[in-house]
Amino acid sequence: ILIATLLAGLTFSSMFTFYQPWALACGFDHVAAYLAAFSACAMGVRITLGGVADRLGRLRVAKIMLLPYIFAPLSLIWLPELGLILTGALLGITHGIFFPALNAVAMDHAPADARGKAMAAYNGAFNIGFAGGSYALGYVALATSFPTIFVIAAVSCAAGFVLLMGARGVGATAA
């Protein structure tokens, strides 16, 4: 679970860190629409679908949502055609459901007296993936191109998906 979380953090960082310079390079003058769409969709799905992981199974929902998450960085390759709103919305929808569902799975695996540690480990894994991704992918972007890092991020997310598909146990069914 923590490795899948770390890989999702790397994927997330590729989009948050590098969408702005990529959008500017693609000719966009204003780049805030991406974050606005991300925020609106992430909040929207959390408000309207916030209990879906509890009803359908936390692990099941995390697995299901990590699959379309793979396409969020890939969508940025076609940013000139898709636009900032659509690409930001895709990230918001997938992240808005995936991140809290997997967080709940991590909490389900922790004994009651260690949930604080589990929360720290979960958020730490995501943040290490985010920081490492921002750092390493910056060098890759300098040496190659922005689309290359979005492909790497998608592959990273796919690896997390494969790992998560093998996860079993607590959180696999509805609570």
Number of helices: 8
How widely separated are the two ends? 18 Å
Q: Specify Rg, calculated over alpha carbons.
A: 16 Å
Helix content: over 70%
Report low-confidence residues grouped into runs of 5 or more. Answer: 171-175
- The H/E string reads HHHHHHHH
Question: What is the number of strand segments?
Answer: 0
Q: From the structure provided, what is the oligomeric state, counting identical versus distinct chains?
A: single chain
Rough outline: globular
> Tell me about the biggest sheet?
none
Q: Determine the mean pLDDT.
A: 93
Structural class: mainly alpha
Beta-strand portion reads: under 5%
Give a structural overview:
By secondary structure, this protein is an all-alpha fold. The protein is built from eight helices and no strands. Helix 1 runs parallel beside helix 7 and helix 4 runs antiparallel to helix 6. The radius of gyration is 16 Å and the shape is globular. The two termini are 18 Å apart. Mean pLDDT is 93; it is low at 171-175.
List keywords for this structure.
mainly alpha, globular, 0% strand, 175 residues, disordered C terminus, single chain
Secondary structure blueprint with pairings:
Blueprint lengths: L1 H24 L6 H18 L2 H5 L1 H12 L1 H7 L1 H30 L6 H29 L2 H20 L10
Helix pairs in contact: 1-6, 1-7, 1-8, 2-6, 4-6, 4-8, 5-6, 5-8, 7-8
